[in-house]
Amino acid sequence: MKHSSRPQQATAVSASEHHNHQLYHEPSDNCYVKFNGSHGRILSLLLKFVLAFSVILCFGDPIAVLLLRPAMVEVSFEKASLTKFSITNKNILNFNLALDVRVRSPNKKIGIYYESLEAVAFHRGERLGSVSVRSFYQELENTT
């Protein structure tokens, strides 16, 4: 075998030959990020917290519904009185309607807080009037 002391000449390679030379590069064993010490523990705790919070958000409401078994309130009208019922020349209706409303909560494990209520009177799809009802809390298995 004959060795040459002369440097080898570079050969020209076209762009297409160069790019098709190796399509896949095998990753080395050091191709990952490793967190050491306190950074790894902090990241681990953060990921555990995010996972636990996500599980609580996804499954918290269905579990609460299964445990508490809330029931719909029952609303009924006990007494009604209509006074001052008149129509003006401009077809404006004036009336005073008083209702006694009964709200029953059959729930044995939860009370209900009614924060914002509005009673609205309709006749044949037309809104006749409305009144705001003050907020209140209804105890367990209570009728108000």
TrEMBL record:
<keyword id="KW-0812">Transmembrane</keyword>
<keyword id="KW-0472">Membrane</keyword>
<protein>
    <recommendedName>
        <fullName>Late embryogenesis abundant protein LEA-2 subgroup domain-containing protein</fullName>
    </recommendedName>
</protein>
<dbReference type="InterPro" id="IPR044839">
    <property type="entry name" value="NDR1-like"/>
</dbReference>
<dbReference type="GO" id="GO:0005886">
    <property type="term" value="C:plasma membrane"/>
</dbReference>
<feature type="transmembrane region" description="Helical">
    <location>
        <begin position="45"/>
        <end position="68"/>
    </location>
</feature>
<dbReference type="GO" id="GO:0098542">
    <property type="term" value="P:defense response to other organism"/>
</dbReference>
<keyword id="KW-1133">Transmembrane helix</keyword>
